[in-house]
Amino acid sequence: MAWINRFWNLLHRDRLSRDLDEELQFHLDARTRANLQAGMSPEASQYDARKQFGNAVLAKERAREVNTLASLETLGQDLRYAIRSLGRSPGFLSIAVAAMALGTGANTAVFTVVNGVLLRSLPFPQPDRLFLISYKPQHTPFETGPGLADQHYLEFAKQNRAFESIATFGESGVTLTGAGDAVRLPAASVTSGFFRVLGVSPAMGRAFVPAEEKRASSVAVLSDQLWRSRFGGDRDILGKTITLDGGRATVIGVMPDGFAFPRNVELWLPLEVGGDPGNSYFRTVIGRLGPSVSLQQARAQFETFAQQLPLGAGANRSDMTAQVLPLKDLLVGNVRKLLLVFMGAVAFVLLIACANVANLLLMRGASRRQEIAVRSALGARRGRLIRQLLTESVMVSLTGAAAGILLAVVGVPALLALAPTGSVPRMEEIHIDGWVLAFALGLGGFTGIVFGLVPALQATGRELRDFLNQNSRTSAGRRDRVLSVMVVAEIALALVLLTGAGLMMKSFLRMRSVDPGFRSDHVLTLTVDLPESTYATATAMERFHERLLGKLSNVPGVLAAGAVNWLPLSPFLIRGDFGLDGGQRIPRDYLADKPAVSADYFRVMGISTLEGRGFTEQDNHDAPGVAVISRSVARTLWPGRDAVGKRLTLEDNPKPEDWLTIVGVVDDVRQAGMTAEPHAAIYQPYQQVTRPFFLSHMTFVVRTAADPVSVSAAMRQALAGVDRNQPVDSIAAMTDLVDATTAEPRFQARLISIFSLLALLLAALGIYGVLAYAVTERTREIGIRMALGAEKSDITRMVLKRSLLLATAGAAIGIAGALMVTRVLEKFLFDVKPTDPATFAVVAALLGAIALLAGWLPARRASAVDPLMALRSE
Fold it and tell me: Are 558 and 552 in contact (CB under 8 A)?
C-alpha cells in the first residue's frame, strides 16, 4: 500500500507541493502565534519560527523523498541535465561515442556468431537431453570424431539402460538421376531410431522401421529442399521410386523444412550395422537420455560398460576413452576454441576503447572543476554529483552501444563473407536477435558505469577543495598520473593483440611458402564417384577411367591428363601397413598412403622422379605388379641404398602375384595438408588394382597451356560422353584447392589483424589525447621554460620523451602479458612459436613508432607556444 501511495504522489507532484507548502506554513504560523503569546515582538516571533524549522526548501525536499519515488524523479533530472551537458560538448561526445561504437560493435558482431554457433540450442525437442556416445582410441593415424565401432554399438544397444533411444549414422554421397540432370547429393545412412532420438518426425510419410535396416530394403527419406527443388513439391511423391547410384529406392517420407542434420544432408537412407568382429568401422552414435537419468549417471553406466568390452588385436585399453558428450559438439567442436579466441581479442579492443573514454572523461572533468566545485559548495552531496557524472558516462556508452549495434548489422555479414566456405557451422542460426541486443545494451550500461566511476570519483574528490583554494597543482598531478596509467594500459593491451596478429600472419606466410611436392599451376581437377550398382567390378571401373582419360587427353588446350584415386590435399585417403620381401622389418606403426594413379599422373602434377621411372601404359593388369614409392619410404627403409628393384606387398597374406617390384622413387607430397608432414606413399598403377573401393572414387587431372578454367566445360562434356548419368562430384583448379588449405589460417590472421589495427588506432588516439591535454595544462610551464632560454627542439624532445616513456612502459607490460596470452594460439600456429622473439621485437618497435607519431602533433604545438602570451594568460 505504501508503494501505491508513493506512486500516486509521483503522478500528482504539483498537488503534493501545494500540500507541503500549506503544511509548512501552518507550522510556521502556529510557532509565530505561540511566540506572540509568550510576549515576543512580531519580528522576533517570525525569526524564531523560521529558525526553528530551518531551510524550508530543504524540508520540502526531504518530505518529498519520503512521500514519492524520489529516485525516479531525480533520475529524470539527471538525464535531462546530462543531455544538455553533453550537447554543449559535441566534439567530446562524437569521439567518445565513436570509440565505444568501435569497441561495442566488434564485440556485438563476434557475440552474434558465438551466440548462433555455441549458445543457441539445437532445433530439436529438449536438446539438452541429446548426447554423443563415444569409445575410441585417443591416438590414431586417422582423425575421426566421437563414435563407436559397429560391434560395440550393437552390444551397447542390447545393454543400454541410460538412454531411452540410441542410433548411429554415417555420412556419404549418392548420385540422383532421372530427376533433371544427374547430381551428387550429401546423404546420411541412419539406423531406424535416428529420427526418434532427435525427436523429429517426417512432415509427410513415415520414418524407417527396424526391418528396413537391410541393404535389400531400398527406401529413402527426402529433405524438404530436395523434394521442392527436384520433384517440384509433388504431394504424391510418397510411394514413388527414384534412382540413387543406379538403383531404385522408394520414397517413404519428406522431412520438415529446415531439417538437414547432420550437415546439410538432403537424403536419408537405412543403415545396416554389421556385427562382424573384423569390421573396424567407427560411426557417430547419438542418444536421448531417459526421463529420470542424469548425465552423471549415464556417464558412469557407459564407462562401466566400456570397461567390459573386448578389444581388438593390438588395442590398448589405456588409450581408449569413454565419453558422453553434448550433441552440439558434433557441429561446433572444432570451432569453439577459435571463437573464444576472437571473443578475447574483441574484449581487448573494448577495454582499450573504455580506457580512451575514461581518459576523455577525466579531461572533461578537469575542465568542469569550477562547475562541480560550485555545486558542491552550494550543498550538493558527493553521491549526487557522482550519480550525475555516471549518468553522463552511461549515456555516452549506451549511445555508443546503439551505434555499435548498427555496425554489427553490417559487420556480421562481412565477417561471414570473409570466412572460408564451410568453416563456420550453423550459419543459418547466426543473426541479431533479442539476446544479441540485450548483450550489446547490457555491455554498454556495464562499461559506462565501470569506465565512468574513476573519472567521477576523481572529479568529486579532494581536488574540489584544492580548486577553491586555488591550489590545484596536486590534484592536476594526481589526474595526470591516472591518465598516464590508462594510456599505458591501452598500449599494453594493443601490444598483446598485435603480437597475436603478428604470430598468426607469420604462421600463414610460412604455410603459404611450403612446397607441397607438386606444381599446382595450370592444373584442373574433376572428381567422380562411381556407383556400385552400375560399376560393380574393378574391371568395369578401369574401363570407365580409360575411356574418360582418352577423351580428356583430346580436349583442345589440354597438354596431358592423369588420374589419382585420392588427390593431394583432399580430406580423404587410403592408408595402411604393408610388408617387405625377405622378412625385412618395418618400424612400428609405420603406415603409408596407397594412391592408385595413371601413367601420366606424375607428369601432369609435376611430381619429380628421383630414381628409376614412373608408370607407363604397359603397366597394366597383364604385366607384373609394380610400385613407385615416395622419397621418405626409400630413406626410411633403405637408407643410403638403391630402393629400385626391391619388392613389397600391400596384402596381409600375399600370394606370389601380390608382390610388387619398386620401379621408381618420386618426391614426397603433402597429401593431408600444407601443415602436415609429407606422408610415406606407395603408388600403384590403377590398371593393376583389383579392389573396387580403390577405384570407385577417382580424380582426373589435366595440365593446360592456358587458364585451366577455360577447359572446364569441355571436361564436363567429356564425362557426359562416357556416362551421361555420372555427375561431376567437383571440378576445381588445383591452385584453388591449395589456397583452400590455407583459407582458414588466412581468415584467422586477417580477422585478428583487423581487431589489432582497431586497437592500435585507439591506443594512438589515447596517446595523442593525453599528450595534447598535458601540453594545454602545462602551457604556463612551457612558457617559463622558453622564457628562460629553452629552445623549441628542447620542448619537442620533452613531449616526445614522455610519449616514448608511456610506450616503453606499456610495451614492457604488454610483452609480459603477451608471453602468457599468446600461448592459447599455439594450436593455430604453423612453424612459429608463441614466444617468437622476432615478432615481439617488430611489434614493440611498431608501437614505439606509432607512439612517437601520435606525440608529434602535441610536441609541435608545445614548441610553438608564445612565452609572453602563455604568461599573460595566467
Answer: yes
d(C-alpha 304, C-alpha 296), whole Å: 12
The Cβ of residue 236 has, within 10 Å, a number of other Cβ atoms equal to 7
Beta pairing class for 241-244 and 204-205: unpaired
Q: Residue 681 in contact with residue 633, Cβ under 8 Å?
A: yes
CA 614 to chain centre: 45
Residue for cell digits 548483450? 439
Residue recorded with cell 500516486: 8
CB 426 within 8 A of CB 120: yes
What's the sign of the alpha-carbon dihedral 524, 529, 534, 538? positive
Rounded CA gap, 620 and 599, in Å?
10
CA separation for the pair 271, 768 (Å, rounded): 67
- pTM for this model (two decimals): 0.80
DSSP letters spanning 767-797:
HHHHHHHHHHHTHHHHHHHHHTT--HHHHHH
Q: What is the C-alpha to C-alpha distance for residues 826 and 812, in angstroms, rounded to an integer? A: 22
Q: In angstroms, rounded to a whole number, what is the distance separating the alpha carbons of residues 743 and 747?
A: 6
Residues 6+ apart with CB under 8 A from 363: 483, 769, 773
Residue 696's φ and ψ, nearest 5 degrees, are -70, -30
Task: Say which residue, 292 or 367, is predicted with more confidence.
Answer: 292
Closest CA to 326 of 128, 169, 124, 137: 128
Identity at 208, one-letter amino acid code: F
Render pLDDT for 829-865 as a digit per residue (tens, 0 to 9): 888 898 899 999 999 888 888 888 877 877 777 666 5
Report which secondary-structure segment, H or E, holds 580: strand 579-580
Other Cβ atoms less than 10 A from the Cβ of 355: the count is 25
181 three-class SS = coil
Cell output for 576? 595402411
User: CA dist 640 to 613, 634, 677, 874, Å?
Assistant: 19, 9, 22, 88
Give dist(CA 387, CA 449) in Å, integer.
Answer: 10
Chain segment 539-574, per-residue pLDDT in tens: 999 999 999 999 999 999 999 999 999 999 887 788
